[in-house]
Write a structure and sequence with these properties.
This protein is α/β, with parallel strands linked by helices. The chain folds into two domains: 93 residues, no CATH class; 148 residues, HUPs (Rossmann fold), CATH 3.40.50. It is 52% helix and 10% strand. It is built from eleven helices and five strands, in the order H-H-H-H-E-H-H-E-H-H-E-H-E-H-E-H. It has a five-stranded parallel beta sheet, sandwiched between helices. Helix 2 runs antiparallel to helix 3, helix 3 packs across helix 11 and helix 9 packs parallel to helix 10. It is elongated and about 70 Å long. The two termini are 31 Å apart.
């Protein structure tokens, strides 16, 4: 139930969608004489919101605290890593289904990082967790991210006996819970968690709550650092996407905390 509610509300919570709905509402009201002025105000406000979100550094301001919360760190090859857990979200399941290849999204670094990590920690298990996250993909019967990823990992030279795939999860909460059920980690085992930098705070909170001892390995950064706080966006679509990503993560942290799925709204390293 939580999953379907989150997907439904998530559509409206995305700032770009909210601004468009507001603008369309204003357009409709502008044809009604009694509220015509209010309708025009809503249209103007929506247009201004699009401009600010699309061209200003707002998206960078919102996403930087998420990316900087768990900084990159050098991990010694002598570190005892029981397994490397890769979170889904980097595979386009629809294109992968129709084109019969592993089609990666703009979060591809989650996948490509495994090529190097698997050699750096040759004794560690490689675990991928991800099913079909979108409602449309479930309706159309898309291949799961886990199943689409298998051939890609093989091309990295990783033998089948080293790999484990969890293909039922639809969101990050299920990633953590189902992966724990699959691995049943023993006390003292440490796992490396690979996901996008902006997604790391929520992921770390969920995997800790599930019972894992995890180390963060953030990839797929969306900003170059604090200097991007003054960098505007040339293409409005890029700015809107950055704002959408950041707001979705902040709302995700808040909703997971309120629902008791995580213990901290902004977990510490």
């Amino acid at each position: 139930m939580f999953y379907y509610l989150a997907k439904t509300l998530g559509f409206l919570i995305l700032p770009s969608n909210a601004a468009l709905v507001l603008g369309l509402l204003g357009l409709g009201l502008s044809f009604i004489r009694r509220v015509q002025r209010f309708g025009r105000f809503l249209m103007g406000f929506a247009l201004l919101a699009f401009a600010v979100m699309g061209w200003s550094p707002l998206g960078n301001w919102l996403i930087q605290p998420l990316e900087e919360r768990f900084p990159q760190q050098a991990i010694s090859q002598q570190a005892k890593i029981a397994g490397i857990i890769v979170l889904g979200g980097a595979v386009d399941t629809h294109i992968s289904t129709t084109r019969h290849e592993t089609a990666l999204t703009d979060s591809a670094e989650r996948m490509t990082a495994i090529a190097g990590l698997s050699r750096q920690f040759p004794e560690a298990r490689i675990i991928f967790t991800g099913g079909v996250g979108s409602l449309a993909g479930q309706i159309w019967g898309d291949i799961t991210e886990a199943d689409a990823s298998r051939q890609l990992f093989r091309s990295f030279g990783i033998p089948d006996e080293r790999m484990l795939f969890e293909n039922r999860s639809r969101d990050t909460y299920e990633n953590a819970v189902f992966t724990y059920d699959l691995l049943k980690p023993k006390p003292g085992e440490t796992y490396l968690l690979v996901t996008s930098g902006y997604h790391m705070p929520r992921s770390m909170a969920l995997f800790r709550k599930a019972g894992f001892d995890v180390m963060a390995y953030p990839v797929n950064y969306r900003t170059a650092g604090p200097q991007d706080g003054v960098r505007p966006f040339y293409a409005m679509s890029d700015g809107l996407r950055q704002v959408n990503l950041a707001v979705r993560e902040w709302v995700g942290l808040l909703s997971y905390r309120l629902s008791g799925r995580i213990d901290e709204i902004f977990p510490e390293p």
